[in-house]
Write a structure and sequence with these properties.
Radius of gyration: 24 Å
Number of helices: 11
Order of helices and strands: HHEHEHEHEHHEEHEHEHEH
Shape: globular
Strand order of the largest sheet: 1-9-8-7-6
CATH class of the largest domain: Alpha Beta
Strand content: 5-15%
Number of domains: 2
Number of strands: 9
Helix content: 40-55%
Oligomer: single chain
């Protein structure tokens, strides 16, 4: 359209102004593009707050470790060994599931949080949804009370970064976590501590889901469920970012262990490597499920892959997971291409 307008103006002004108009024809699109980019960038930052929010990369610059619990005496969580193992492997983010029996209990947070805070490690409790029994004790499916209790605890321990609700939109859980209820949870924690984050787990993110969540969550954990290939993972994340439109962060979840739907075995190291590369580049951060973290797991090749993405690791995106300065030219040639 712009070129057609310029041709009409050249004809009107006559030949003597043809050279000047040709010059403008080259310059004007560049100027307009720069101005438009500045306007869109400023509007986006103002509308979403993304330009100011440090919590936009709340999982940190390395993948967050949802690790196999390290058990101590009486089957309780061995806090000192857990913290030491996280530090030894370069992880500064830890997922703690709250269930109804040790070592995954609410009571375990009491010794875990001060130790994690002293070590500079953020902690993410996970609540069990109705579709999985809703058996997180003591509040079970009273998620309003859960959010109140955890947010109040975060005022004492800033290491308590936020809370995840597992499988929030799966099966009967979707009837609990309506937009209205999610907004109540969000408003509850906002009144107590706006820095405490509410981030549910999902497995699909289309425009309908994005609209349902926007304004009522601080992000999502979006899981890639294929343990054998990564084909389509990049598209999933890019499409998800598109429909979200900057309204909340999208963190990619990957699996480091066999699952109920894939019992043939763990993912092979090159697939985990590729999945983490895609997760770190095309999402706002990554979470790794069931990562073997115990000292005896030191020779585990999947742990070797995961810690290569920590600061100082050998991966191209080591210490840059979710960072905006990642370059597509550094993706590993190993594994399936997206």
């Amino acid at each position: 359209m712009e070129n057609a307008c310029l041709r009409q103006r050249e004809a009107a002004y006559g030949g003597q102004q043809e050279e000047a108009m040709r010059d403008n024809k080259m310059r004007r699109p560049v100027a307009l593009s720069v101005a438009l980019f500045a306007f869109v960038t400023a509007s986006f930052a103002q509308a979403t707050g993304r330009g100011e929010k440090s919590e936009w990369h709340a999982m940190g610059s390395a993948p967050c470790a949802w690790a196999v619990p390290i058990r101590g005496p009486s089957n309780t969580l061995d806090v000192s060994v857990t913290i030491q193992s996280l530090r030894n492997n370069g992880f500064d983010c830890y997922v703690h599931v709250i269930e109804n029996a040790p070592p995954n209990t609410f009571e375990a947070l009491e010794p875990l949080l001060p130790a994690a805070q002293a070590a500079g490690i953020s902690v993410w409790p996970v609540l069990i949804p109705p579709s999985e029994g809703g058996n997180s004790l003591p509040y079970k499916t009273d998620y309003i009370q859960w959010v109140k209790a955890l947010t109040q605890l975060s005022l004492k321990y800033s290491a308590l970064r936020g809370v995840n609700i597992d499988d929030s939109l799966i099966g009967i859980s979707s009837k609990t976590f309506t937009r209205s209820y999610l907004c109540r949870l969000y408003q509850t924690k906002q009144r107590i501590n706006p820095k405490f984050l509410l981030i549910p787990t999902i497995y699909d993110l289309d425009r309908g889901v994005a609209d349902r969540l926007a304004g009522c969550v601080d992000g999502v954990w979006l899981w890639w469920v294929n343990l054998e290939i990564t084909n389509g993972m990049r598209s999933l994340l890019e499409d998800s970012q598109f429909v979200v439109g900057g309204r909340f962060p999208v963190y990619a979840g990957v699996y480091a262990h066999r699952t109920s739907w894939h019992q043939e075995g763990d993912p092979v190291p090159k697939i985990l490597q590729r999945a983490l590369e895609i997760a770190c580049r095309y999402s706002d951060g990554a979470v790794i499920w069931n990562l073997p973290l115990a000292p005896k797991s030191g020779m585990n090749p999947l742990l070797d892959v995961a810690r290569s993405f920590a600061a100082g690791g050998s991966a191209a995106l080591a210490g840059k997971c979710g960072g905006a300065n990642a370059s597509a030219t550094t993706l590993s040639p190993h594994g399936a291409q997206p």
